[in-house]
Amino acid sequence: MRGFTFYERVSRSFHDYPSLSKLVVLFTVSGGTLVAYSDSQSNYVEKDAVTSPYIDNKKKRVVVLGTGWAGTSFLKNLNNSSYDVQVVSPRNYFAFTPLLPSVTCGTVEARSIVEPIRKIVRKKNVDIKFWEAECFKIDVENKKVYCRANEEKSNINGIEDFIVDYDYLVIAIGARANTFNTPGVVENCHFLKEIEDAQRIRRSVIDCFERASLPDLSDEERKRILQFVVVGGGPTGVEFAAALHDFVCEDLVKLYPSVKDFVKITLLEAADHILGMFDKRITSFAEEKFKRDGIDVKTGSMVVKVSDKEISTKERGKGEISSLNYGMVVWSTGIGTRPVIMDFMKQINQANRRALATDEWLRVERCDSVYALGDCATINQRKVMEDIAAIFAKADKDNSGTLTVKEFQEVIDDICERYPQVALYLKNKQMSSIVDLLKEAKGNDAKESTELNIEEFKTALSQVDSQMKFLPATAQVAAQQGAYLATCFNRMEECEKNPEGPLRFRGEGRHRFKPFR
């Protein structure tokens, strides 16, 4: 009877503490074994929501979507143990993506450029949990993210979809390849965004050489099979073309000497030059190097269609359509928006953008508790001329209607911090002081005693917004953004009390943090 009395006590405990979801009790009654199994669920927890009875409810929950450069950098640099961090990503590892072109050619093995995300987070003194799943919906109004397990794992324990609540959401899910809706790209081209892509390209290159080595093939067919086309003259496309050239010339020609003369690599770029986002000297060097190596660079060529054996291009300006036979195509023309981000942008009235718009502190516009970084977002830097009246009013402390050089000097550091294009403008114009800037508005007679009215102030700063630049979608920028945001979270409470950012020109006080640079 004592055994059953214990059983009754256990049963009552489930009613008193419903958060104890599963418990198995084994004990002996008259030489036999009695197994008691309970499966109960709290009435206060939403069905399918991810919860834990061991989580301190006082902790703010930070949900991180993605384990790429931005997300992983955020996790590595987050040191504040006052957060409950939950990571959701379909990829349970971090990949060093700049080395993907090297993986395609076997210079580096795939296992050498990945690190398990669980290995990264277990070193932290922060409570971090990882879920291998994909976020398919963000409910910003109720602060929930809807997730789905990977297809091959979706039948485990019958769990498929689940919900994660958040206090802060960090979106770092990257982007997908941008096909520009060109017909035949998805069906016939390789992309180079993931480890699996690099491995498929490597197998395809070898397959092309094997097929070209088969007997009874015409020379024309061998030329077609060994015509490798790279679409996109950005960093990824250029690096892959160079890596493929080295792979062919240094390794494959030794294994397939009979077909080495049929190999050709062509790079197609719609703009006038490759690597257009870099310095012109880098662009010139790359184009000259490719010319020496025999890589055919065709600029001003926009791909309009891709079939199973042929790629059609339209020459910019002339509009002429030409065709090129190929054996393999790698598509690397930039990044596109993922479906979950497109749906989220519709919710927050950003539907007409290519990426999430954030402020200079990486907060999604109109969403104070949501941050976005990496390739899925872009910083919407405010223009000086949008706030020119507020800046003038803040600097004009005596409300005289004019601004002295001294008053201007007192706020110039905050202006340069808040609007980086001002500092860049001064640097590019080789201006050493505010007086130099005022000369453009007042002429060469500008002195320390010079006073400006609002119109003259506008004239002095009218050209600074021309120096605004968007940050490139690179791994380095994403990693820097992740580290910056982690620093902000680490010092959140401290900076709430003692803000360290620039003046709020359109409000009172100072911003909590310095903007991302």
Outline the secondary-structure elements.
Layout: H1 2-16, E1 22-29, E2 32-39, E3 60-65, H2 69-77, E4 83-89, E5 93-95, H3 100-104, E6 114-116, H4 117-121, E7 127-139, E8 144-149, E9 161-165, E10 168-171, E11 176-177, H5 185-188, H6 195-212, H7 219-225, E12 227-231, H8 235-255, E13 264-269, H9 280-293, E14 296-299, E15 301-306, E16 310-315, E17 321-325, E18 328-331, E19 335-336, H10 339-347, E20 356-358, E21 370-372, E22 377-379, H11 388-395, E23 403-404, H12 405-418, H13 420-428, H14 434-442, E24 451-452, H15 454-460, H16 475-490, H17 492-497
Parallel strand pairs: 3-4, 3-10, 4-7, 10-21, 12-13, 12-18, 13-14, 20-22
Antiparallel strand pairs: 1-2, 5-6, 7-8, 8-9, 11-19, 15-16, 16-17, 23-24
Give the structure's gist in a few sentences.
The chain has 517 residues and is of the alpha/beta class. It is 34% helix and 22% strand.
Number of DSSP-assigned strands? 24
In terms of per-residue confidence, which ranges show pLDDT below 50 for 5 or more consecutive residues? 1-48
For the largest beta sheet, what order do the strands appear in spatially? 9-8-7-4-3-10-21
The biggest beta sheet, please? 7 strands, mixed
Shape: globular
Q: How widely separated are the two ends? A: 72 Å
